[in-house]
Design goal:
Layout (H helix, E strand, L loop, with lengths): L1 H9 L1 E4 L2 E4 H20 L6 H17 L13 H11 L5 H28 L2 H12 L2 H9 L4 H16 L3 H14 L8 H8 L10 H16 L3 H5 L1 H6 L7 E2 L5 H4 L5 H24 L7 H18 L3 E2 L4 H13 L4 H20 L7 H20 L11 H6 L8
Parallel strand pairs: 3-4
Antiparallel strand pairs: 1-2
Helix pairs in contact: 2-6, 3-4, 5-6, 5-7, 5-8, 5-17, 6-17, 7-18, 8-9, 8-17, 9-11, 10-15, 16-17, 16-19, 17-18, 18-19
């Protein structure tokens, strides 16, 4: 019996392109079971967002059916409302079903993150570590299982986008990005990394076509249900017009330093011009750098732009680093010496989550957290600026035609 167990532990199992030993499979199974247990234990928490928004939207859909989407009671992108409508058809408690779907996506997202880490490092151990770390991140557990939020939906779509881009499957990757944009406006936080890939010849202009196509497909059912097309086209603009009561909503960015309750109109306008100016300057510098566009560099760009845009944009929420945290986890497992950044950003976001969920003052002033976030931004920015360059000329047309993103180690 002991010999059988030892042999099983050493035996390799194939899962598509990946292979796992029996011991690794057992380790991942235990991790998964523990992660499921944690989520089950906290599933009954009812957050204000559920009581005020989600439950009322579900009631509208349950009462009026799919035709309810013709009305303007919701401000989320229509694809999220289609999910809610589907939940009304299930014979389960609505909140349990919603949380359950989002938690299932968290496990899928953890698997994609592990795949990206494996793609970038070739290390099965780091990939498995990434899987477990993501599932046990406090903000990941709090986001869906506790708060009833669905940031994992657009996050897993962006993860799949980057995964396919790293594999050189540009069209597939961009279809995933377009789908993510149809779900959540916050996907634009990292959009500049695609601009740099376009400048480097890794993405063509035609590859951006899925973005408007998927957005139009996303609003099509709601339009057929009767909601005016003009409202659906401008639903993201409507979202941007909300939350005007504070420059920063429990988010550690520059407005926590200069005062997030003062000169709202003036700072909003100035902040928009400021981030646009910064992005133009950064993109200009990056466009002329002779940088090796490796897999690590792509991940680093996503992290950098995710932190940069949210640091200077007004009206940011505490949840808006969810996507960036996922990619920062990937980055610090590629470059373990930067693991401290992951711990720091995790703490920063937990503070905002905790204040919202407990209704208690933050344990650390947001002004202090904003300086920590600025330090993280500077470190990541310097990593990007000092990334290994080409010794000679930039790659020629033949290499650009390949459309491949090289491994940082290769």
């Amino acid at each position: 019996m002991d010999q059988y167990v030892r042999n099983w532990m050493k035996k390799e199992f194939s899962f598509g392109p990946y292979r796992l030993k029996g011991a690794e499979l057992l380790f991942l199974t235990v991790l998964t079971a523990l992660a499921v247990t944690v989520r089950v234990l906290v599933r009954s928490f009812v957050a204000d967002d559920w009581s005020i928004y989600w439950s009322s939207w579900l009631l509208e859909l349950q009462t009026k059916g799919f035709s309810a989407l013709a009305e303007d009671f919701y401000d989320y992108a229509p694809p999220v409302m289609y999910l809610l409508y589907g939940i009304t058809l299930l014979p389960f408690n609505a909140m349990t079903a919603f949380k359950g779907i989002c938690c299932l996506l968290e496990f899928a997202g953890a698997a994609v993150i592990a795949g990206i880490v494996m793609e970038c490092t070739g290390s099965r151990r780091r990939a498995q570590f990434a899987y477990g770390l993501f599932l046990f991140l406090p903000t990941v557990i709090l986001n869906a299982a506790v708060w009833s939020q669905c940031d994992i939906i657009y996050t897993i779509l962006i993860l799949c986008c980057v995964m396919f881009l790293l594999k050189g499957k540009t069209w597939t990757g961009m279809w995933f990005y377009g789908t993510a944009f149809a779900v959540k406006l916050q996907t634009l936080f990292i959009f500049p990394f695609l601009v740099i890939l376009w400048v480097r010849g890794k993405v063509d202009l035609k590859h951006f076509l899925p973005i408007p196509v998927m957005y139009l497909l996303g609003i099509l059912p709601a339009w057929l249900a009767g909601r005016p097309f003009s409202e659906l086209i401008g639903i993201y603009a409507f979202q941007g017009g909300k939350d005007r009561w504070s420059l920063s909503i429990k988010f550690p960015n520059i407005y926590q330093i200069i005062g997030n309750q003062y000169f709202l109109d003036e700072y909003v306008g100035a902040g928009m011009y400021l981030i646009l100016g910064i992005l133009m300057l950064v993109l200009f510098v990056m466009a002329y750098q002779k940088v090796r566009v490796t897999k690590e560099y792509v991940i680093l760009m996503v992290v950098f732009f995710g932190i940069l845009t949210t640091y200077f944009l007004p009206h940011m929420h505490e949840r808006y680093l969810y996507l960036t945290d996922a990619f920062l986890l990937i980055y610090v497992l590629i470059r373990p010496k930067r693991f401290g950044l992951f711990i720091a950003t995790g703490f920063l976001t937990v503070v905002g989550y905790a204040e919202y969920l407990t209704k208690k003052p933050p344990c650390v002033p947001y002004g202090v957290l904003a300086f920590v976030q600025l330090a993280v931004l500077i470190i990541v920015g310097l990593d990007l600026y000092h990334y290994p360059r080409y010794d000679g000329e930039l790659p020629g047309p033949e290499e650009k035609e390949e459309g491949r993103i090289r491994d940082a180690r290769g």
